[in-house]
């Protein structure tokens, strides 16, 4: 791709993606505002792995900074952009909704404008399985309607898909949206279940298990996610000749626009996920069984047929192996 802007480069997915791009020879400009949504030291440690590469440049900048974003795009002239920066978390969106508007909506508009005016060849952006919301038909397909989100976070991601389509239609900007399904693995986010469970168990505390443990998630290992993102980045979308406004397909368009799921395509019961963690840690968890949280959904399951057909990629890492690798990293990083 040449020179790639990765936003959220100090984040979980962004740091792994930047590393993969650097290892294959791309120039990477990594953008992050290093906010304190979770421990900044972890973000700085992720960045330290990247700054060892001569092809990496770090820019501390907030997506919501209109002038700063405009100057960045004018100065660097990117070939590709992968937008992973976002205010994440379903539950936090119930507490601090404005942070989602500022980053996920205003910030994303600055990304779109920068790509439009500087001739970016391909914008890939992070959406989320959360957009499926109240949908119950499984597996979740990119060809389904997703008009019933259950959290502001989910609504902001659906809005990103609509905004991106508008720019693809009006300005012929090639854009691809990726709906990520419960990403986990080394260097993960401290607000995610695997991280919370591991920390609590090693400290001798009970773990909070929501929906009485009857949740099912399409847990997807980080290495699979970033390998899929790179495959998608290299495949610049073109208008779908079969698309028609009489029967509009949400996954494609008469514009250069695509939506894909990236998930393991193998949903796992939360109790089985916990069992894999107990096995990796060599201890049994004390479980505090709780009801479903507001904004959450009981199950996710990704249909990845389109991803496999178009870019010849399908996630494959088994959950037990992925959890084992996370535990090994956690013990090493936190020296426990």
Can you walk me through this structure?
Strand 5, helix 6 and strand 6 (175-180) form a beta-alpha-beta unit. Helices cover 41% and strands 16% of the residues. With 336 residues, it is of the alpha/beta class. It is built from eleven helices and 13 strands. It has helices spanning 12-23, 40-50, 66-76, 92-95, 97-118, 152-171, 193-202, 222-233, 270-281, 305-311, 319-334, and strands at residues 3-7, 27-32, 56-60, 80-83, 122-128, 175-180, 183-184, 207-209, 216-217, 220-221, 257-262, 268-269, 287-289. Strands 3-2-1-4-5-6-11 form a seven-stranded parallel β-sheet, with helices on both faces. A two-stranded parallel sheet has the order 7-10. It starts with a strand and ends with a helix. Helix 1 (12-23) packs parallel to helix 2.
């Amino acid at each position: 791709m040449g020179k790639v802007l990765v936003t959220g480069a100090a984040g979980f997915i962004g740091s792994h993606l930047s590393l993969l791009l650097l290892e294959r020879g791309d120039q990477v400009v990594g953008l992050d505002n290093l906010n304190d949504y979770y421990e900044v030291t972890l973000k700085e440690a992720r960045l330290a792995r990247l700054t060892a590469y001569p092809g990496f440049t770090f820019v501390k900048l907030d997506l919501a900074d209109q002038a700063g974003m405009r100057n960045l795009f004018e100065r660097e002239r990117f070939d590709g952009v992968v937008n992973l920066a976002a205010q994440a978390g379903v539950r936090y969106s119930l507490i601090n909704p404005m942070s989602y508007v500022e980053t996920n909506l205003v910030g994303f508009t600055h990304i779109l404008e920068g790509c439009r005016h500087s001739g970016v060849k391909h914008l890939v952006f992070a959406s989320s399985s959360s957009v499926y919301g109240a949908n119950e038909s499984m597996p979740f397909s990119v060809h389904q309607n997703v008009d019933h989100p259950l959290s502001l976070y989910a609504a902001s991601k659906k809005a990103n898909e609509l905004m991106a389509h508008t720019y693809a239609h009006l300005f012929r900007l090639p854009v691809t949206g990726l709906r990520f399904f419960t990403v986990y693995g080394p260097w993960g986010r401290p607000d995610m279940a695997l991280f919370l469970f591991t920390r609590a168990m090693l400290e001798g505390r009970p773990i909070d298990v929501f929906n009485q443990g009857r949740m099912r998630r399409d847990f997807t290992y980080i290495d699979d996610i970033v390998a899929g993102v790179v495959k998608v980045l290299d495949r610049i979308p073109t208008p779908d000749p079969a698309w028609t406004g009489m029967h509009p397909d949400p996954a494609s368009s008469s514009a250069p626009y695509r939506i894909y799921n990236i998930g393991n395509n193998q949903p796992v019961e939360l109790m089985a996920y916990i069992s894999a963690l107990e096995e990796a840690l060599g201890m049994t968890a004390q479980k505090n069984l709780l009801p479903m949280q507001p904004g959450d959904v009981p199950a996710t399951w990704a249909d990845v047929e389109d991803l496999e057909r178009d870019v010849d990629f399908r996630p494959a890492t088994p959950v037990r192996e992925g959890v084992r690798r996370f535990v090994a990293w956690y013990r090493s990083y936190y020296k426990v």
